[in-house]
Design brief:
373 residues, alpha+beta, two-stranded antiparallel sheet, 17 strands, 34% helix, 21% strand
Length: 373
């Protein structure tokens, strides 16, 4: 085996607080992660787990093949759509401050949309992908400026009445984040840093990566090319957060047992609103009954849920006791986060290749199962 290959499968494990079953956990993580790296040619993966407030990190492979930089718990990865949970947390902050209502219509903050079909939906509908059928991505013709964005939303025609279909969508969640920033009367990225990232103590998490953090920023890989995300319209709101496994497991812990000042805000993202199949859509997080089988978790994260419009049903708005998860991808990165507040366990898997979602779910479920013991 070459030196590079040995590095790719070397594990640098750092334990903040020992687990009683540390050896077994290491074996389970190894068995979950190493086959993924081999099968999908993933350069590097960072895994973080938490149980009862204790954390452990497992680091595999390379953050940069060109520079042969090893992955660590301080390596910055693109979170992809896991960023949507941060946007949801900012919206929950705005609601807690009385500056945003989930029952508001977009024209309250964007008068240019008054009288258009999009104004029939509410902030809640945009945050739960139930406004009536937005596409997964914005059309290529929509440029990264306000004029083009407004023209798109003024011309949009729904497939169904608000609340009848769930169709996973960056335009929908992007507008949700945009309305949140308008309600706060702040720049989106600055508001995120001020009201979410800093209060949660996430010292290496960014919407806009500063120059000082660039040495820790992994390269993503698309085929054999090193890549990073592009600043498209609504990138910040939908897939633009970069973070480390150390910060992300701290974020999971904050969702499991938040500090008093953040408790009502975090609680706002744990409310379920619309049920589609076995999954209940909240703000950012997707929720499942607990315990949840691997088959049910795969169904809730299936291509049908990601790429198709599905009939959905409004449910009583309440915090559900169960499993919360979110996948995320950019061109060169793949992420998955899941946690069970009731059990105080959670898993973060960050990778610098966009490998298939079922493989992420299977790996995380295997690790979570070990944490349950």
């Amino acid at each position: 085996m070459s030196t590079l290959s040995r590095m790719a499968f070397a594990i640098a494990a750092c334990c903040c607080t020992p687990f009683a079953y540390a050896a077994d956990l290491k074996t389970v993580v190894d068995q979950a992660v190493q086959p993924i790296m081999q099968e999908y040619d993933v350069p590097g993966i960072a895994v973080a787990v938490t149980a009862d407030g204790k954390t452990r990190f497992f680091n595999y492979g390379l953050a940069s093949r060109e520079q042969k930089t090893p992955v660590s718990e301080n390596t910055l990865f693109e979170l992809g759509s896991v960023s949507k949970t941060f946007t949801a947390t900012l919206a929950a902050y705005a609601v807690a401050q009385g500056k945003l209502s989930l029952d508001d219509h977009p024209s309250r903050y964007m008068p240019q949309l008054k009288g258009t079909p999009v104004d029939n939906a509410t902030v809640l509908h945009f945050g739960t992908y139930t406004a009536g059928g937005f596409p997964l991505q914005l059309p290529e013709a929509v440029q990264n400026n306000e004029r083009s964005m407004l023209a798109y939303f003024r011309d949009w025609q729904p497939k169904a009445a608000p609340g009848k279909l769930r169709e996973y969508s960056n335009p929908s969640l992007g507008l949700f984040g945009h309305l949140t920033a308008l309600a706060l009367k702040e720049d989106f990225a600055e508001a995120m840093q001020k009201h979410v990232i800093s209060p949660l103590g996430l010292n290496n998490t960014y919407v806009r990566v500063p120059e000082s953090a660039m040495p820790n920023y992994a390269w993503g890989y698309d085929k054999d090319k090193p890549v990073r995300m592009q600043p498209d319209l609504f990138a910040e709101q939908t897939y633009g957060v970069r973070s480390t496994s150390a910060d992300m497991i701290r974020y999971v812990q904050a969702n499991i047992d938040p500090q008093a000042s953040m408790r009502p805000i975090i609680a706002g993202t744990h409310v379920g609103y619309f049920r589609t199949g076995l999954m209940t859509q909240g703000l950012g997080w997707e929720q499942f009954a607990y315990p949840t089988s691997l088959e049910h978790l795969l169904e809730g994260n299936s291509p049908e849920m990601l790429f198709k419009a599905n009939a959905t049903k409004r449910v009583t708005s309440q915090a559900e006791s169960g499993l919360y998860d979110k996948t995320g991808s950019t061109r060169g990165f793949g992420a998955y986060v899941l946690f069970v507040p009731e059990k105080k366990i959670g898993v973060v898997i960050l990778a610098n290749r966009n490998y298939p979602i079922p493989a992420r779910v299977k790996a995380a479920h295997a690790i979570l199962t070990q944490l349950e013991q």
